[in-house]
């Protein structure tokens, strides 16, 4: 349990950190990209307003005259761009590549043809951001080279991801190290709890044995009565309770000591279920076994047999009236499926996984007739989890079905 809690703690911590880092990295990189688009679109707008040229006013402007302006007098000399003029029939009229060295007139004409084919007012074509300005006499296509800006964004994104990856690894190592310290009080408390349960259970056994022996002496001298029978029933309940508490307390230790082997699940289930057919008949109930032969399972056979005993004990105790109980074992893909179905009209419809919580009992079982303690299904769940399986409980049309996949 502590190991699982530690793994969950590490997982939650790392997932939280990963989510925060992802949000920060995405926000920064998206903001950078939007800034580049904003600046480039501003350049395109300026060039479009002046027939594909920078205005003379920006060239003679001093930086201190408008310090908040995005563009400076150096902008016309820093910007690599070219323009293509088309007539109203989409024929090339004029090409201007004087402000760029990487594009020839022929290449500019090819870029213009691609933009006309796309028929979009603006966008990216390779590393060039373009804008299409349509007028009555023709079309002006303006292309701005964004190679440097896009490379900067790409390098920053890769660097941020790389650094974040190393940061995550470093934090992971720290979390793994400090998780032992953080969870040490919990582990100590849990160990004390297990020790208390084990000690208390052993201490209770002696008084119960004495009471049981005294009750038998009373019956030998005065005969059996409803009072002695009631006492023996309560003793039996307490003995079962202490045994189940010990099982739960030792479950974590036994998980590491489980003998995982391949065994016949069909035979193990059938042998474990046969005694409950007699028990069910004495309570005027029927237990139907639908076990497919030849099913093998990899696990702890002893634990699986105990699982079947707990499931059927629960079903026989709590199935309503003279209801039917069905135990099915079948192969489902690569998994082995075990399901127990019994009548339970008093249960609410829907998911009932709460039944696996420790000491949880329905109102109908909170009496001495059933003798339940609310631990049996918790033991079942612990065994299933020890085999890395899944367990669920669902009530439909007055029937409770507990399904296990191993």
UniProtKB/TrEMBL annotation:
Reactions catalysed according to its record: ATP + protein L-histidine = ADP + protein N-phospho-L-histidine
SMART domains reported for this sequence: HATPase_c, HisKA
Sequence ranges assigned to domain Histidine kinase in this UniProt record: 199-406
Origin: domain of life: Bacteria
Subcellular localization, as worded in the UniProt entry: Membrane
SUPFAM superfamilies hit by this protein: ATPase domain of HSP90 chaperone/DNA topoisomerase II/histidine kinase, Homodimeric domain of signal transducing histidine kinase
Alphabetical list of InterPro entries matching this protein: HATPase_C_sf (IPR036890), HATPase_dom (IPR003594), His_kinase_dom (IPR005467), HisK_dim/P_dom (IPR003661), HisK_dim/P_sf (IPR036097), Sig_transdc_His_kin-like_C (IPR004358), TCS_sensor_his_kinase (IPR050428)
Keywords, comma-separated and alphabetical: Kinase, Membrane, Phosphoprotein, Transferase, Transmembrane, Transmembrane helix, Two-component regulatory system
4Fe-4S listed as a keyword: no
EC number(s) stated in the UniProt entry for this protein: 2.7.13.3
PROSITE patterns: HIS_KIN
Transmembrane region(s): 155-183
GO molecular function, one term: kinase activity
Name of the featured protein: histidine kinase
Provenance organism: Brotonthovivens ammoniilytica
